[in-house]
Specification:
Number of helices: 20
Low-confidence stretches: none
Largest sheet: 6 strands, antiparallel
Strand content: 15-25%
Helix content: 55-70%
Structural class: alpha/beta
Length: 553
């Protein structure tokens, strides 16, 4: 619900801070005092268009902020959470108007575009009257309200689930059908690619070893020649390293008799002779085994060349060819089974269509009964709201195309006067009539709606007497279940409120200012008396005002 509103330098308001309570609050004041400023200020925090003319004369900027308690508004809490704007169960909306610049909007202190402010505002507050925030004029709201009134949310949710499943199956079917149309060409292509890649996939998996083998064979002659030379230098020539080291070892053996400290050096030479011998033997075997194999080299060369061609053709590295082959094979298998899958999906789509139609038909039947019941209740209320002979109806028309909301197009229609044909709610009523019709609908569906705060702007236009009493009682009843703010000129309505605010305009040579004050019991008697008696308030008028308040409290 609306908890607080603060205004600074807006039109003729210098600075204003108001706290709001649950229940019905009446907003009254003399004509021209500025009662609409409160509605305008709230509208700004809900995303209404900001004009420089709204900024107080002599000021460069204006600011409006509203704070809402979200304990009774799960829809707004969920929206804030989904947009990462939630903050401890409260919601602050702020709008800053700049005379020579664009207005700025904030949700919980974070700047947001106006579209988000409007989306959130629709979940927080409804303004009924000649204002933009009239959610009852939207077809989606009318459908949701009808479903809530009839307790059809679960049934409507099931229809939506059936529709989602049907759309998903149709999408798969359409994709598979399109694929099937071209599958013969695609299958030929895939089979050719698989035939081309499959013989080389093992080589691609060991491409680095393949390249190493190719490199070795390409240099086989050099490897054989130079390993032979090294072997000869080590052990197979007259003056090889082994012979030289042997002579050195024998010379050291003679010196050891003279100095035993030379023994470790002799042992190192022994070890070197052994290692050189092993190295020579290993090289000899390598040399003897190394042969030129031009045929093998050519085969490797061709294999590597084909792998590089596939790499360029498919724009993947050689190491990625096995994975590409797997994808091609999976797609081939899928296409091979396309006819069978398409037949299964056709059956599945038919089953889902039948399920959806049955659920939508059942929902439609209950909607028609609920529409008739709601039509009668609102029509009956209209007769007591100075619209005798008027008629309200909820029209359920069959759609040609199914939707997630069922097969019905829901439309609220009204004939405000006898003899008139019913027309859509937005087109058929004047501002005052629309407010009263909205009031009748809201009272009838008070336990169904999820917008916690309702504002009725001058619902008393063109009425008085007993009708005003009835409207006041309806607003009071509605205020027991929802927060209601009512701008009114009639004492019969104001007296029904749980709380009372008065708009006062102060005029001087320098400036004109508007203030809004909450009234205690005594000041409320004075305001009701003013509304009853005009400028001159007599003792009799005060007594009458006291009596009216006593009867309603």
């Amino acid at each position: 619900m609306l908890a607080h509103l603060a205004i600074r330098d807006l039109v003729i308001v210098r600075e204003l801070a108001l706290d709001f309570s649950p229940g019905m609050t009446a907003l009254t004041g003399e004509t021209g005092a500025g009662k609409s400023i409160l509605i305008d200020a709230l509208g700004l925090t809900l995303g209404d268009k900001a004009l420089p003319a709204l900024i107080r004369a002599g000021c460069e900027r204006a600011e409006v902020s509203s704070e809402f308690d979200l304990s009774d508004c799960p829809a707004a809490s969920d929206w804030l959470r989904d947009h990462d704007l939630d903050e401890n169960g409260t919601c602050q909306l702020r709008r800053v108007l700049v005379r020579n610049g664009r207005s700025r909007a904030y949700i919980n202190g974070r700047p947001v575009p106006l579209v988000l402010l409007r989306e959130l505002g629709e979940r927080l507050l409804d303004i009924h009257g000649q204002h933009a925030h009239q959610s009852l004029l939207r077809p989606a709201t009318q459908r949701e309200l009808l479903d809530r009134y009839g307790g059809l949310e679960i049934t409507a949710g099931e229809v939506a689930e059936h529709f989602t499943a049907l759309q998903a199956a149709r999408k798969k079917y359409e994709h598979l059908r399109q694929v099937a149309e071209d599958r013969h060409n695609r299958l030929d292509y895939l089979r050719f690619q698989i035939t081309e890649i499959e013989p080389l996939v093992e080589a691609a998996s060991h491409f680095s070893e393949l390249e190493a083998e190719h490199h070795r064979l390409a240099h086989a002659e050099r490897l054989r020649h130079e390993t032979g030379e090294i072997t000869a230098e080590l052990a197979d020539s007259e003056d090889d390293i082994s012979s030289q080291l042997g002579a050195m070892q024998r010379q050291l053996d003679g010196l050891i008799a003279l100095d035993k400290h030379l023994r470790p050096v002799a042992e190192l030479l022994d070890s070197a002779l052994v290692q050189i011998g092993e190295a020579a033997q290993t090289l000899r075997h390598y040399h003897d085994a190394m042969e030129n194999d031009p045929a093998h080299l050519q085969a490797l060369d061709e294999q590597i060349g084909r792998l590089h061609e596939l790499e360029r053709k498919h724009r993947v590295e050689v190491a990625g060819l096995p994975e590409l082959l797997t994808r091609f094979c999976e797609e081939r298998d899928t296409l091979d089974a396309a006819d069978e899958r398409l037949a299964r999906l056709t059956t599945r789509v038919t089953e889902l269509e039948t399920t959806y139609r049955q659920a939508a038909k059942a929902l439609s039947a209950v909607r028609h009964k609920t529409a008739a019941r709601l039509s009668d209740v609102v029509t009956e209320s209209m007769q007591t709201l100075n619209m005798q002979g008027g008629h309200f109806e909820v029209l359920c028309e069959a759609r040609h195309e199914p939707t997630r909301h069922g097969s019905d197009h829901i439309l609220f229609r009204v004939a405000a006067n006898p003899g008139q044909p019913p027309a859509p709610l937005a087109d058929a009523a004047s501002g005052g009539e629309l407010s009263r019709i909205s009031l009748a609908i809201q009272v009838a569906t008070a336990d169904c709606g999820d917008t916690p705060t309702l504002i009725f702007d001058e619902v008393d236009v063109g009425i008085g007497g007993a009708v005003a009493e009835i409207i006041g009682s309806l607003l009071h009843e509605l205020g027991c279940r929802r927060q209601v703010l009512c701008v009114t000129h009639l004492p019969q309505i104001a007296a029904k409120a749980h709380h009372h605010l008065r708009v006062i305009k102060h005029t001087s040579r320098e400036a004109t200012e508007t203030d809004i004050r909450p009234l205690d019991h005594e000041h409320r008697i004075e305001e009701i008396a003013r509304m009853l008696g005009g400028i001159e308030i007599t003792a009799q008028t005060l007594a009458h005002a006291r009596e009216i308040l006593l009867q309603n409290n």
